[in-house]
User: Which sequence fits this backbone?
């Protein structure tokens, strides 16, 4: 199984600082440590994966090699000694290729896909927006146009493997091929490297991309920017950029798919006598008629005041959850009036407080009194 991108494993952008890497690794280590997940074998796999990613990216030299060449740049099996091969399948693939006339391997590689975590507001998610992001990436060297050779010169066929990218080792009856240690499988060497990219054909630089975010995107949605990933090698196509959407916490609303929820505090007086209140929506304010005797937990639904998802035919709803607020910092007169209300209500408890009376009846039934 192909390894995941190390930055994706840790959930960070490619320009993440050392502190960002450390925080991300600690969070994953705490979550997936085998001691905390003794019955979950998958957790141990995630723990090892995060540990490997952090060990590579926290080392500046290894991180530079990984940024430039991907997993091949930090894979110890590349350039292994005589008699070794990267894996069993590769070895027998070479053998059967020789027996049945297989040709040489392609040395053209597609560039790596990149990931960028983009935080936007709930309003931007609902209405859509366009923004710009600045990312570090390996791009084709403009001096040598990706050849890696000094302008006016060209790469030449590798003298060790004859341009095949593989060298043949005879082991008894079998003829085994392995990656050429001279050209590392590219089949070419650069006698006079480009001064800009030092023969790599790609350079690390920042680029600014425009991202159009459609209305209705939700947490975790991905926007694909085709061809905006890392440049390929030896003329290969560029990878893609995936922008992952994260929605910031809102001061008033919480989102549940296409519906919005909010808490609506009302006074005891309004709850008891009824009234009209004004609430915010993403499109402005709206009025709600509160009926008399409204209780905490009552939900008022405003149809069509939610969000229209990217793949939805209609808007969601706005759900207003009533919370009856107990008054604080009462004046002596207010306390006096409330005490008077309590005394008047006490003689008709079941009539004015039916839920409390019903609850007390259940308690008495439970204790058999």
Assistant:
């Amino acid at each position: 199984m192909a390894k995941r991108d190390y930055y994706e494993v840790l959930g960070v952008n490619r320009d993440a600082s050392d502190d960002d890497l450390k925080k991300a690794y600690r969070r994953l280590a705490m979550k997936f440590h085998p001691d905390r997940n003794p019955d979950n074998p998958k957790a141990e796999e995630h723990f090892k994966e995060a540990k490997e990613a952090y060990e590579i990216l926290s080392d500046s030299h290894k991180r530079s090699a990984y940024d430039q060449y991907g997993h091949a740049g930090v894979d110890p099996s590349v350039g292994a000694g005589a008699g070794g091969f990267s894996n069993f399948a590769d070895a027998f693939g070479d053998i059967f290729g020789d027996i049945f006339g297989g040709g040489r391997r392609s040395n053209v590689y597609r560039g790596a896909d990149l990931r960028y975590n983009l935080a936007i507001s709930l309003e931007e998610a609902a209405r859509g927006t366009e923004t710009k992001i600045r990312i570090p990436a390996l791009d084709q060297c403009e001096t040598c146009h990706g050849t890696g050779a000094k302008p006016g010169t060209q790469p030449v066929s590798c003298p060790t493997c004859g341009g095949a990218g593989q060298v043949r080792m005879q082991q008894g009856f079998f003829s085994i091929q392995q990656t050429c240690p001279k050209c590392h499988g590219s089949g070419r060497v650069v006698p006079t490297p480009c001064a800009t990219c030092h023969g790599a054909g790609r350079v690390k630089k920042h680029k600014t991309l425009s991202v159009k975010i459609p209305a209705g995107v939700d947490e975790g949605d991905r926007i694909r920017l085709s061809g905006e990933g890392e440049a390929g090698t030896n003329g290969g196509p560029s990878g893609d950029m995936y922008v992952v959407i994260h929605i910031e916490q809102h001061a008033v609303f919480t989102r549940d798919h296409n519906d919005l929820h909010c808490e609506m505090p009302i006074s005891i007086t309004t709850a008891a006598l009824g009234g009209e209140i004004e609430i915010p929506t993403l499109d402005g304010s709206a009025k709600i008629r509160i009926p008399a005797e409204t209780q905490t937990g009552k939900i008022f639904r405003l149809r069509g005041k939610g969000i229209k998802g990217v793949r939805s035919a209609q808007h969601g709803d706005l759900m207003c959850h009533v919370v009856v607020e107990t008054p604080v910092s009462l004046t002596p007169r207010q306390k006096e009036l409330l005490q008077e209300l309590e005394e008047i209500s006490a003689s008709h408890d079941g009539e004015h407080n039916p839920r409390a009376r019903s609850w007390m009846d259940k308690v008495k039934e439970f204790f058999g009194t």
